[in-house]
Amino acid sequence: MAYQGQKNAPKAERPPKKQSGDRLRREASKQWEKPFGERSSFQKQSRSFEEKENRLPQKAPHTYRPEEQAREQKPAFVPEESMEAQDTLRPELIAGRNPVLEALKNGRALESVNVAKGEVKGSLLKIIAMAKDQGIPVKEVSPAKLEALCGGSSHQGVAALASAAKYSDLEDLFARAEEKGEPPFFIIADELEDPHNLGAVIRTAEAAGAHGVIIPKRRCAGLTPVVYKTSAGAVEYLPVARVANLTDTLKELKARGVWIYAADMDGKNWCSVDYTGAVGLVIGSEGKGVGRLIREQCDFLVSLPMKGKINSLNASVAAGILMYEIARQREQKRPGR
Protein backbone atom coordinates (compact mmCIF):
# COMPACT_ATOMS: atom_id res chain seq x y z
CA MET A 1 0.00 0.00 0.00
CA ALA A 2 1.27 3.47 -0.88
CA TYR A 3 2.61 5.66 1.89
CA GLN A 4 2.48 2.80 4.35
CA GLY A 5 4.57 3.53 7.37
CA GLN A 6 5.11 7.15 6.48
CA LYS A 7 4.24 9.70 9.01
CA ASN A 8 3.00 12.44 6.76
CA ALA A 9 0.96 10.25 4.45
CA PRO A 10 -2.35 11.94 3.44
CA LYS A 11 -5.55 10.50 4.69
CA ALA A 12 -7.65 8.55 2.28
CA GLU A 13 -10.40 10.65 0.70
CA ARG A 14 -13.74 9.80 2.05
CA PRO A 15 -16.87 9.95 -0.08
CA PRO A 16 -19.21 12.78 0.85
CA LYS A 17 -21.89 11.87 3.28
CA LYS A 18 -25.37 11.56 1.92
CA GLN A 19 -27.61 14.33 3.18
CA SER A 20 -31.05 13.42 4.35
CA GLY A 21 -34.19 14.91 2.76
CA ASP A 22 -34.99 17.03 5.81
CA ARG A 23 -31.55 18.63 5.74
CA LEU A 24 -31.89 19.49 2.06
CA ARG A 25 -35.26 21.09 2.65
CA ARG A 26 -33.87 23.16 5.53
CA GLU A 27 -30.98 24.43 3.42
CA ALA A 28 -33.34 25.32 0.59
CA SER A 29 -35.58 27.26 2.93
CA LYS A 30 -32.56 29.19 4.24
CA GLN A 31 -31.65 30.17 0.71
CA TRP A 32 -35.12 31.63 0.14
CA GLU A 33 -34.91 33.54 3.42
CA LYS A 34 -31.98 35.59 2.10
CA PRO A 35 -32.63 39.09 0.75
CA PHE A 36 -33.53 39.22 -2.92
CA GLY A 37 -30.17 40.64 -3.93
CA GLU A 38 -28.20 37.73 -2.43
CA ARG A 39 -30.07 34.99 -4.30
CA SER A 40 -28.78 33.15 -7.30
CA SER A 41 -29.86 34.08 -10.83
CA PHE A 42 -31.97 30.93 -11.10
CA GLN A 43 -33.76 31.78 -7.87
CA LYS A 44 -34.36 35.35 -9.09
CA GLN A 45 -35.90 34.09 -12.35
CA SER A 46 -38.11 31.66 -10.47
CA ARG A 47 -39.22 34.38 -8.09
CA SER A 48 -40.08 36.84 -10.89
CA PHE A 49 -42.03 34.13 -12.74
CA GLU A 50 -44.03 33.33 -9.60
CA GLU A 51 -44.80 37.02 -8.99
CA LYS A 52 -46.00 37.39 -12.60
CA GLU A 53 -48.23 34.37 -12.24
CA ASN A 54 -49.71 35.73 -9.01
CA ARG A 55 -50.61 39.02 -10.68
CA LEU A 56 -52.74 37.28 -13.34
CA PRO A 57 -56.45 36.82 -12.54
CA GLN A 58 -57.09 33.33 -11.31
CA LYS A 59 -60.04 31.40 -12.73
CA ALA A 60 -62.03 29.24 -10.44
CA PRO A 61 -62.13 25.59 -11.44
CA HIS A 62 -65.34 24.71 -13.30
CA THR A 63 -66.87 21.33 -13.85
CA TYR A 64 -69.31 21.02 -16.76
CA ARG A 65 -72.69 19.61 -16.06
CA PRO A 66 -74.78 17.76 -18.65
CA GLU A 67 -77.39 20.54 -18.92
CA GLU A 68 -74.65 23.15 -19.47
CA GLN A 69 -73.09 21.09 -22.23
CA ALA A 70 -76.47 20.74 -23.91
CA ARG A 71 -77.05 24.49 -23.63
CA GLU A 72 -73.68 25.23 -25.22
CA GLN A 73 -74.36 22.87 -28.12
CA LYS A 74 -77.75 24.47 -28.83
CA PRO A 75 -77.46 27.25 -31.47
CA ALA A 76 -78.36 30.77 -30.40
CA PHE A 77 -80.64 31.26 -33.42
CA VAL A 78 -82.76 28.63 -35.10
CA PRO A 79 -84.13 29.59 -38.53
CA GLU A 80 -87.84 29.23 -39.13
CA GLU A 81 -87.23 26.45 -41.63
CA SER A 82 -85.27 24.47 -39.05
CA MET A 83 -87.94 24.91 -36.43
CA GLU A 84 -90.55 23.59 -38.84
CA ALA A 85 -88.36 20.59 -39.55
CA GLN A 86 -88.42 19.45 -35.93
CA ASP A 87 -90.41 16.34 -35.13
CA THR A 88 -93.38 18.28 -33.79
CA LEU A 89 -96.67 18.68 -35.62
CA ARG A 90 -98.12 22.18 -35.74
CA PRO A 91 -101.46 22.35 -33.92
CA GLU A 92 -103.36 23.72 -36.94
CA LEU A 93 -102.07 20.95 -39.23
CA ILE A 94 -103.87 17.67 -39.90
CA ALA A 95 -101.50 15.10 -41.42
CA GLY A 96 -102.26 11.65 -42.79
CA ARG A 97 -104.93 10.23 -45.07
CA ASN A 98 -107.40 9.02 -42.45
CA PRO A 99 -107.24 12.20 -40.28
CA VAL A 100 -107.76 14.46 -43.31
CA LEU A 101 -110.58 12.24 -44.59
CA GLU A 102 -112.36 12.35 -41.24
CA ALA A 103 -111.96 16.13 -41.05
CA LEU A 104 -113.64 16.45 -44.46
CA LYS A 105 -116.45 14.08 -43.49
CA ASN A 106 -117.21 16.08 -40.34
CA GLY A 107 -117.21 19.44 -42.15
CA ARG A 108 -114.09 20.78 -40.43
CA ALA A 109 -113.16 24.27 -41.64
CA LEU A 110 -109.95 23.86 -43.66
CA GLU A 111 -107.79 26.47 -45.31
CA SER A 112 -106.29 24.10 -47.86
CA VAL A 113 -105.42 20.48 -48.56
CA ASN A 114 -101.77 19.92 -49.54
CA VAL A 115 -101.02 16.84 -51.66
CA ALA A 116 -97.52 15.65 -52.56
CA LYS A 117 -96.62 15.63 -56.23
CA GLY A 118 -96.51 12.24 -57.85
CA GLU A 119 -98.88 9.40 -58.48
CA VAL A 120 -102.24 10.09 -56.85
CA LYS A 121 -104.29 6.97 -56.16
CA GLY A 122 -106.38 5.22 -53.57
CA SER A 123 -107.85 7.34 -50.78
CA LEU A 124 -106.03 10.43 -52.05
CA LEU A 125 -108.44 10.60 -54.98
CA LYS A 126 -111.37 10.57 -52.56
CA ILE A 127 -109.76 13.30 -50.41
CA ILE A 128 -109.21 15.56 -53.43
CA ALA A 129 -112.76 15.03 -54.68
CA MET A 130 -114.30 15.79 -51.27
CA ALA A 131 -112.15 18.90 -50.83
CA LYS A 132 -113.19 20.27 -54.22
CA ASP A 133 -116.86 19.55 -53.51
CA GLN A 134 -116.59 21.57 -50.29
CA GLY A 135 -114.80 24.41 -52.03
CA ILE A 136 -111.49 23.84 -50.20
CA PRO A 137 -108.38 24.73 -52.24
CA VAL A 138 -106.22 21.72 -53.14
CA LYS A 139 -102.51 22.51 -53.51
CA GLU A 140 -99.96 20.21 -55.13
CA VAL A 141 -96.62 20.61 -53.34
CA SER A 142 -93.25 18.91 -53.53
CA PRO A 143 -92.59 15.99 -51.15
CA ALA A 144 -89.80 18.00 -49.49
CA LYS A 145 -92.11 20.93 -48.78
CA LEU A 146 -94.79 18.62 -47.39
CA GLU A 147 -92.19 16.95 -45.18
CA ALA A 148 -91.07 20.31 -43.82
CA LEU A 149 -94.68 21.39 -43.32
CA CYS A 150 -95.41 18.29 -41.24
CA GLY A 151 -92.25 18.63 -39.17
CA GLY A 152 -91.09 15.06 -39.75
CA SER A 153 -94.42 13.47 -38.80
CA SER A 154 -95.98 10.76 -40.94
CA HIS A 155 -98.23 12.38 -43.56
CA GLN A 156 -98.84 9.64 -46.18
CA GLY A 157 -98.68 12.24 -48.94
CA VAL A 158 -101.39 14.61 -47.68
CA ALA A 159 -101.82 17.28 -45.01
CA ALA A 160 -104.58 19.82 -44.40
CA LEU A 161 -104.29 23.23 -42.80
CA ALA A 162 -107.18 23.81 -40.41
CA SER A 163 -108.87 27.17 -40.04
CA ALA A 164 -108.84 28.98 -36.71
CA ALA A 165 -112.54 29.84 -37.11
CA LYS A 166 -115.45 28.70 -39.23
CA TYR A 167 -116.31 30.55 -42.43
CA SER A 168 -119.73 32.04 -43.12
CA ASP A 169 -121.80 32.33 -46.27
CA LEU A 170 -122.61 35.51 -48.10
CA GLU A 171 -126.20 35.18 -46.91
CA ASP A 172 -124.99 35.31 -43.29
CA LEU A 173 -123.54 38.76 -43.92
CA PHE A 174 -126.81 40.09 -45.37
CA ALA A 175 -128.74 38.52 -42.50
CA ARG A 176 -126.51 40.29 -39.97
CA ALA A 177 -127.20 43.67 -41.61
CA GLU A 178 -130.93 42.94 -41.69
CA GLU A 179 -130.98 42.01 -37.99
CA LYS A 180 -129.43 45.36 -37.09
CA GLY A 181 -131.76 47.26 -39.41
CA GLU A 182 -128.85 48.87 -41.24
CA PRO A 183 -127.78 49.04 -44.89
CA PRO A 184 -125.09 46.43 -45.60
CA PHE A 185 -121.50 47.39 -44.82
CA PHE A 186 -119.00 44.83 -46.13
CA ILE A 187 -115.20 44.79 -46.37
CA ILE A 188 -113.79 42.97 -49.41
CA ALA A 189 -110.14 41.86 -49.41
CA ASP A 190 -108.59 41.59 -52.87
CA GLU A 191 -105.53 39.28 -52.65
CA LEU A 192 -104.59 40.50 -49.19
CA GLU A 193 -101.88 37.90 -48.58
CA ASP A 194 -100.31 39.24 -45.40
CA PRO A 195 -102.08 37.54 -42.44
CA HIS A 196 -101.19 40.42 -40.12
CA ASN A 197 -102.88 42.92 -42.45
CA LEU A 198 -105.96 40.74 -42.80
CA GLY A 199 -106.20 40.28 -39.04
CA ALA A 200 -105.90 44.03 -38.48
CA VAL A 201 -108.59 44.71 -41.12
CA ILE A 202 -110.99 42.25 -39.46
CA ARG A 203 -110.35 43.80 -36.05
CA THR A 204 -111.04 47.34 -37.29
CA ALA A 205 -114.07 46.22 -39.31
CA GLU A 206 -115.67 44.69 -36.22
CA ALA A 207 -114.98 47.84 -34.20
CA ALA A 208 -116.32 50.16 -36.94
CA GLY A 209 -119.63 48.31 -37.22
CA ALA A 210 -119.12 46.39 -40.46
CA HIS A 211 -121.41 43.41 -41.06
CA GLY A 212 -118.79 41.09 -42.48
CA VAL A 213 -115.61 40.52 -44.48
CA ILE A 214 -115.37 38.80 -47.87
CA ILE A 215 -112.15 37.12 -49.01
CA PRO A 216 -111.29 34.98 -52.06
CA LYS A 217 -110.28 31.34 -51.68
CA ARG A 218 -107.01 31.77 -53.55
CA ARG A 219 -104.19 34.30 -53.37
CA CYS A 220 -105.40 35.64 -50.05
CA ALA A 221 -104.67 34.91 -46.41
CA GLY A 222 -107.27 32.79 -44.65
CA LEU A 223 -108.41 32.45 -41.06
CA THR A 224 -105.12 31.07 -39.84
CA PRO A 225 -103.97 31.23 -36.20
CA VAL A 226 -101.89 34.32 -37.07
CA VAL A 227 -104.98 36.10 -38.44
CA TYR A 228 -106.98 35.01 -35.41
CA LYS A 229 -104.39 36.40 -33.01
CA THR A 230 -103.88 39.65 -34.92
CA SER A 231 -107.63 40.25 -35.01
CA ALA A 232 -107.68 40.02 -31.19
CA GLY A 233 -110.49 37.48 -31.44
CA ALA A 234 -112.70 39.64 -33.70
CA VAL A 235 -113.26 36.65 -36.01
CA GLU A 236 -115.46 35.21 -33.26
CA TYR A 237 -117.92 38.12 -33.63
CA LEU A 238 -117.61 39.19 -37.27
CA PRO A 239 -118.58 36.71 -40.03
CA VAL A 240 -115.99 36.10 -42.74
CA ALA A 241 -117.17 34.69 -46.06
CA ARG A 242 -114.80 32.96 -48.47
CA VAL A 243 -115.84 32.98 -52.12
CA ALA A 244 -114.52 31.19 -55.18
CA ASN A 245 -114.62 34.13 -57.58
CA LEU A 246 -114.40 37.67 -56.26
CA THR A 247 -115.45 39.30 -59.53
CA ASP A 248 -118.67 37.29 -59.69
CA THR A 249 -119.32 38.11 -56.03
CA LEU A 250 -119.04 41.83 -56.72
CA LYS A 251 -121.55 41.46 -59.56
CA GLU A 252 -123.93 39.72 -57.17
CA LEU A 253 -123.49 42.42 -54.52
CA LYS A 254 -124.22 45.15 -57.08
CA ALA A 255 -127.32 43.30 -58.22
CA ARG A 256 -128.53 43.31 -54.60
CA GLY A 257 -128.11 47.07 -54.24
CA VAL A 258 -124.60 47.33 -52.76
CA TRP A 259 -122.37 50.16 -54.00
CA ILE A 260 -118.77 49.07 -54.48
CA TYR A 261 -115.96 51.41 -53.40
CA ALA A 262 -112.24 50.75 -53.83
CA ALA A 263 -109.23 52.41 -52.27
CA ASP A 264 -107.08 53.55 -55.18
CA MET A 265 -104.49 56.30 -55.66
CA ASP A 266 -106.31 57.62 -58.76
CA GLY A 267 -109.67 57.98 -57.01
CA LYS A 268 -111.62 60.93 -55.62
CA ASN A 269 -110.90 62.51 -52.27
CA TRP A 270 -112.12 60.16 -49.58
CA CYS A 271 -114.14 62.84 -47.78
CA SER A 272 -116.06 63.98 -50.87
CA VAL A 273 -117.89 60.68 -51.43
CA ASP A 274 -121.23 59.60 -49.95
CA TYR A 275 -121.04 56.32 -48.00
CA THR A 276 -124.46 56.40 -46.36
CA GLY A 277 -126.01 53.66 -48.52
CA ALA A 278 -125.12 49.97 -48.81
CA VAL A 279 -121.33 49.84 -48.99
CA GLY A 280 -118.83 47.25 -50.15
CA LEU A 281 -115.29 48.57 -49.53
CA VAL A 282 -112.52 46.85 -51.52
CA ILE A 283 -109.02 46.80 -50.03
CA GLY A 284 -106.26 45.83 -52.47
CA SER A 285 -103.10 43.83 -51.91
CA GLU A 286 -99.99 45.28 -50.29
CA GLY A 287 -97.94 45.53 -53.47
CA LYS A 288 -100.32 45.55 -56.45
CA GLY A 289 -103.33 47.33 -55.01
CA VAL A 290 -106.75 46.59 -56.50
CA GLY A 291 -106.66 44.27 -59.51
CA ARG A 292 -107.85 45.39 -62.93
CA LEU A 293 -110.88 43.11 -63.10
CA ILE A 294 -111.96 44.14 -59.61
CA ARG A 295 -111.49 47.84 -60.40
CA GLU A 296 -113.76 47.51 -63.43
CA GLN A 297 -116.57 46.33 -61.14
CA CYS A 298 -116.22 49.24 -58.71
CA ASP A 299 -118.67 52.14 -58.70
CA PHE A 300 -116.32 54.60 -56.95
CA LEU A 301 -112.56 54.92 -56.51
CA VAL A 302 -111.46 56.87 -53.44
CA SER A 303 -108.00 57.94 -52.32
CA LEU A 304 -106.32 59.36 -49.25
CA PRO A 305 -104.16 62.51 -49.61
CA MET A 306 -100.44 61.83 -49.22
CA LYS A 307 -98.64 64.94 -47.92
CA GLY A 308 -95.23 63.41 -47.28
CA LYS A 309 -92.61 61.72 -49.42
CA ILE A 310 -94.10 58.24 -48.92
CA ASN A 311 -96.73 57.63 -51.61
CA SER A 312 -98.74 54.84 -50.00
CA LEU A 313 -100.09 53.54 -46.71
CA ASN A 314 -100.24 50.10 -45.19
CA ALA A 315 -103.35 48.28 -46.43
CA SER A 316 -104.84 47.86 -42.96
CA VAL A 317 -104.15 51.52 -42.07
CA ALA A 318 -105.85 52.83 -45.22
CA ALA A 319 -108.76 50.45 -44.62
CA GLY A 320 -109.15 51.70 -41.05
CA ILE A 321 -109.32 55.37 -42.12
CA LEU A 322 -111.96 54.67 -44.76
CA MET A 323 -113.99 52.40 -42.51
CA TYR A 324 -114.30 55.05 -39.83
CA GLU A 325 -115.28 57.69 -42.39
CA ILE A 326 -118.05 55.33 -43.50
CA ALA A 327 -119.08 54.80 -39.87
CA ARG A 328 -119.08 58.58 -39.25
CA GLN A 329 -121.34 59.38 -42.20
CA ARG A 330 -123.72 56.55 -41.39
CA GLU A 331 -123.92 57.66 -37.75
CA GLN A 332 -124.81 61.22 -38.78
CA LYS A 333 -127.58 60.00 -41.07
CA ARG A 334 -129.14 57.80 -38.40
CA PRO A 335 -132.67 58.91 -37.45
CA GLY A 336 -132.78 61.07 -34.34
CA ARG A 337 -129.37 62.64 -34.96
Annotated CATH topology of the largest domain: Alpha/beta knot
Q: Which outline best applies?
A: globular
Radius of gyration: 41 Å
What class do helices, strands and sheet pairing give?
alpha/beta
Low-confidence stretches: 66-89
Strand order across the largest sheet: 7-6-5-9-8-10
CATH architecture type of the largest domain: 3-Layer(aba) Sandwich
Count of all domains: 2
Largest sheet report: 6 strands, parallel
Distance between the termini: 148 Å
Oligomer: single chain
Number of helices: 13
For CATH, the homologous superfamily of the largest domain is named as SPOUT methyltransferase, trefoil knot domain
Mean pLDDT score: 76
Number of strands: 10
SSE order: HHHHEHEHEHEHEHEHEHEEHEH
Percent strand: 15-25%
Name of the CATH first level of the largest domain: Alpha Beta
Helical fraction equals 25-40%
Description:
The protein is an alpha/beta fold. The chain folds into two domains: 84-162, Ribosomal protein L30/S12 (60s Ribosomal Protein L30, Chain: A, 2-Layer Sandwich), CATH 3.30.1330; 170-333, SPOUT methyltransferase, trefoil knot domain (Alpha/beta knot, 3-Layer(aba) Sandwich). The chain has helices at residues 21-33, 41-55, 66-73, 80-84, 97-105, 123-133, 143-150, 170-180, 195-208, 225-230, 246-255, 292-296, 315-333; strands at 93-95, 110-116, 138-141, 158-162, 185-189, 212-216, 240-243, 259-269, 279-283, 300-303. A six-stranded parallel β-sheet has the order 7-6-5-9-8-10, with helices on both faces. Strands 1-4-2-3 form a four-stranded mixed β-sheet. Helix 9 links the parallel strand 5 (185-189) and strand 6. The longest helix has 19 residues, at 315-333.
